[in-house]
Amino acid sequence: MKTLLSAMLLACAALAAPAQAATATFTGTLLGSSEVPPVASPGSGSVTVTMDNVGHTLTISLSFADLLSPATAAHIHCCTAPGGNAGVAIELVDFPNATSGSYSHTFDTRAESTYGSAFLSAHGGTPGAEGALFGGLTSGHAYVNIHDALYPAGEVRALLAPVPEPATAVLTATGLLALGALARRRRG
């Protein structure tokens, strides 16, 4: 029985390692009530960020609607706990100057030009900035917000939350089944 359990744990570890090494996806809903402090805005939207540590890319896809004033800037901010404010990690270049629209861009996370200068400096250059951003994203300490003339500190914000990849769900289910089988054997 110990051999079976050891084999299952080894298989689970082998499955989990590649899942963590390549890419991770994060999503959020843009709302005025998520700003700190909250703002009364009918604006809303959704955002998906995918970071690939092997290919050194960060892809963002965002849609927004009903801002009270055309967007003047948008950023990924990092690294603070939910309810806090953080500096700019990445400026969303060429963001539409509109009250509704969409945005999609892929950044090279090895390029200094990807990061805000203060973020880059605070983390000792590109490798440190890339690691800090990934750490902030995976711990739920990064957010996206859209700024405009009416709300220069941000009209809508989305806290970025990790999306479990399918391998994690399979790994969790396998572990639970193994524990259930082990418990039944001990009782029987």
Architecture blueprint of SSEs:
Layout: H1 2-21, E1 23-31, E2 44-52, E3 57-65, E4 71-78, E5 88-91, E6 101-108, H2 117-122, H3 126-138, E7 142-148, E8 156-159, E9 161-163, H4 166-187
Helix pairs in contact: 1-4
Please explain how this structure is put together:
The protein has 188 residues and is of the alpha+beta class. It has one domain (21-164): Immunoglobulin-like (Sandwich), CATH 2.60.40. 32% of the residues lie in helices and 32% in strands. It has helices spanning 2-21, 117-122, 126-138, 166-187; strands spanning 23-31, 44-52, 57-65, 71-78, 88-91, 101-108, 142-148, 156-159, 161-163. A hairpin with a 7-residue loop joins strand 7 and strand 8 (156-159). Helix 1 runs antiparallel to helix 4 (166-187). The model is unreliable at 4-21 (pLDDT under 50).
Rg on CA atoms, Å: 20 Å
Tally of alpha and pi helices:
4
- CATH topology (level 3) name: Immunoglobulin-like
Measured as a percent range, the helix fraction is: 25-40%
The overall pLDDT average reads: 85
C-alpha geometry = globular
Distance between the termini: 14 Å
**Into how many domains do the coordinates divide?**
1
Major sheet characteristics: 5 strands, antiparallel
Q: Which oligomerization state do the chains in this entry correspond to?
A: single chain
Q: Indicate the structural class.
A: alpha+beta
List SSEs in N-to-C order: HEEEEEEHHEEEH
Q: Beta-sheet strand percentage?
A: 25-35%
* CATH class term: Mainly Beta
E-strand count: 9
CATH architecture: Sandwich
- Ranges with pLDDT <50 over ≥5 residues? 4-21
Strand order of the largest sheet: 6-3-2-1-9
